[in-house]
Amino acid sequence: MEAYTGFARVYDIFMDNVPYGEWGRYLYSLLREYGVGSGLVLDLGCGTGAMTEILAGYGYDMIGVDNSEDMLEIALEKKMQSGYDILYLLQDMREFELYGTVRAVVSVCDSVNYITDPDELSEVFRLVNNYLDPGGIFIFDFNTEYKYREILGEQTIAEDRGECSFIWDNCYYEEERINEYDLTLFIRDEAASHADSELYRKYQETHFQRGYTLDEVRGLIARSGLEFVAAYDAFTKEEPGEKSERVYVIARESGKAR
């Protein structure tokens, strides 16, 4: 099944417990620390544009890339409300194209975990290196193998928000390091008449993510031509540990004349 179709309509509702403001401040601090205080930034796997909007608010000229038309429609609605001059592109991150280079690329909220083939992730990194300015910075996060194996694996999560509800069944295949989660969504039909206001429509989606280790990610960075710079336990400046659930990685463009 195609991911982020029905779920796109209610994604922000179910993600309202995510402290995007705090995450955005952390990302902004990393960009500034590594020399990117302004300029053109690409948000790779931007989804509904939550982080894209935050970075635009910090003064960056933003481009957002995502392969879900439904998610980008919501991002465009946010753009209309905020007035930020953001360029959104409907593209697969495994083969994205830009008109020129950018000062930085960011990819957060475990977007890279959706690339379940390591060779394809290496190609994503190669494209990032290609579209970065000389010495440009790439910042991304990923969910660790530990998180899928010990935290999410075999868990069922359910939430009811009135106008929508979901059941999220996780299954982690340890040998393949693939986390499969099946989403069953019930969304109130806004087009129904007042008398039928309690009519809900059912949607089902299946998503797959791969658990990566930091050593594996470092190897893929080296293969792509990027230069590994640092890795942090998410939202800290501490080194990742065995029980880190999310890791932030900083890499630098390599190969172009500076």
Please characterize this protein's 3D structure.
By secondary structure, the chain is α/β, with parallel strands linked by helices. The chain folds into two domains: 7-143 and 213-252, Rossmann fold; 147-210, S-adenosyl-L-methionine-dependent methyltransferases (N-terminal domain of TfIIb, Single Sheet). It is built from seven helices and eleven strands. It has helices at 11-14, 20-33, 50-57, 69-82, 118-131, 145-152, 214-224, and strands at residues 40-44, 61-66, 87-90, 102-107, 132-143, 156-160, 164-173, 178-188, 200-210, 227-233, 246-252. It has a seven-stranded mixed β-sheet with strand order 3-2-1-4-5-11-10, sandwiched between helices. A four-stranded antiparallel β-sheet has the order 6-7-8-9, covered by helices on one side. A hairpin with a 4-residue loop joins strand 7 and strand 8 (178-188).
From the spread of the alpha carbons, the general shape counts as globular
How big a fraction of the residues is strand?
25-35%
User: What is the number of beta strands?
Assistant: 11
Overall CATH class of the largest domain? Alpha Beta
Spatial extent as radius of gyration:
19 Å
Provide the CATH topology of the largest domain.
Rossmann fold
The biggest beta sheet reads: 7 strands, mixed
Summed over residues and divided by their number, the pLDDT gives a mean of 90
